[in-house]
Amino acid sequence: MTFPLTIRNIEKSIDEFHLNIQDLTFEEGTISAIVGTNGAGKSTFFKMLMNLVKQDNGEIEVFGHSVRGEDDAWKQQIAYQAQTMIGCDAFTGEQLRNLMAEVYPSWDESLFRRFSEKLNIPLNKKVQKLSPGVKTKLNLALNFGKNTPILMLDEPTAAMDIPSRNYFIQFLLELMERGDRTVLIASHQADDIKKLADYLVFINKGSVTRLLEKDSLVSSYRLFWLKEEPQVSRIPGEIKRTYKKVILSNHPEATMAYLSKNGLVIVDEQVPELEDIIQEILMEGEMINV
Ligand SMILES: Nc1ncnc2c1ncn2[C@@H]1O[C@H](COP(=O)(O)OP(=O)(O)OP(=O)(O)O)[C@@H](O)[C@H]1O
């Protein structure tokens, strides 16, 4: 089976930073959130997928075609949005639209117009005159207009106001309804990840530490409010204790079995917020007693 994106053991060293991502595939019809702390390697990973940063070893394939091959027709299959719009300052949105419509045979005028009109993007202004948030919106309109099967967005909502961000989420989810697009989105926004992602790819110090399906990730964590403080410092499954009696567990069954066996009464239990789970994974393994 040919996947939209296949990664085989890529490696890259930049000064002290070493990126190594082993076998990873991204499937059609899915949105994967690339999650990691600042400097973890998310942008470098995207640039390697675009062959803007050359890998030292390994292979990256777009629909089965190596990104290092002579033929770079694969580029027309991907719309990539970097964190900044480089080299566009002197152009207006309309001029950039004309350029993109020529380069991308899959260009969809209605996607471009719908997104830019809804967000009131001034297409007759030069990019250099736009605020950071409006630049991002224009960049998104252009990338949506490309109508490619793969979309890679590097922190697209960082500068956007709340209504625009919500519209972006709605727009992207509508685009996904066709079922044949593959989206990778690097984001620090828990709300974006919660609403958009099917999968979470955690990157830490240049390595993928976990690839998890969002729903099963969320259901594997539980918060237990206990009637009394447990007398042991750590109970099975416990990864964090707050207010002495609130236990966050990533093995709820093991935690519940222990609590029941030891007569510890659960007053309430809840599935934690995705943001709290992400925070725990990014801080991995730390036991915090508040
Ligand atoms: N051109 C470069 N020259 C030297 N080091 C670089 C270069 N580009 C990236 N790096 C280093 O690679 C590492 C990963 O950076 P990268 O921008 O990929 O992280 P990130 O996860 O996208 O971070 P953020 O969340 O802050 O955007 C960092 O240590 C960074 O300093």
Structural commentary:
The chain has 290 residues and is α/β, with parallel strands linked by helices. It is 31% helix and 27% strand. The protein contains nine helices and 15 strands. The chain has helices at residues 42-49, 93-103, 109-118, 132-145, 162-176, 190-196, 214-219, 252-261, 274-283, and strands spanning 5-14, 17-21, 24-26, 30-35, 57-62, 65-66, 78-81, 150-154, 182-186, 199-204, 207-213, 222-226, 238-242, 246-249, 266-270. The strands form three sheets. Strands 7-8-9-4-10-11 form a six-stranded mixed β-sheet, with helices on both faces. Strands 1, 2, 3, 5 and 6 form a five-stranded antiparallel β-sheet that branches. A four-stranded antiparallel β-sheet has the order 13-14-12-15, covered by helices on one side. Helix 3 runs antiparallel to helix 4. The radius of gyration is 22 Å and the shape is globular. Bound molecules: adenosine-5'-triphosphate. Adenosine-5'-triphosphate (ATP) binds at residues 14-15, 17, 36, 38-44. Residues 5-230 form the ABC transporter domain. It comes from Jeotgalibacillus terrae. Keywords: ATP-binding, Nucleotide-binding, Transport.
Task: Give the bound compounds.
Answer: adenosine-5'-triphosphate
Using only CA atoms, what is the Rg?
22 Å
The total count of strands amounts to 15
N/C terminus separation: 49 Å
> Tell me, what's the shape?
globular
Protein name: ATP-binding cassette domain-containing protein
Keywords: ATP-binding, Nucleotide-binding, Transport
Pfam family, one: ABC_tran
Organism: Jeotgalibacillus terrae
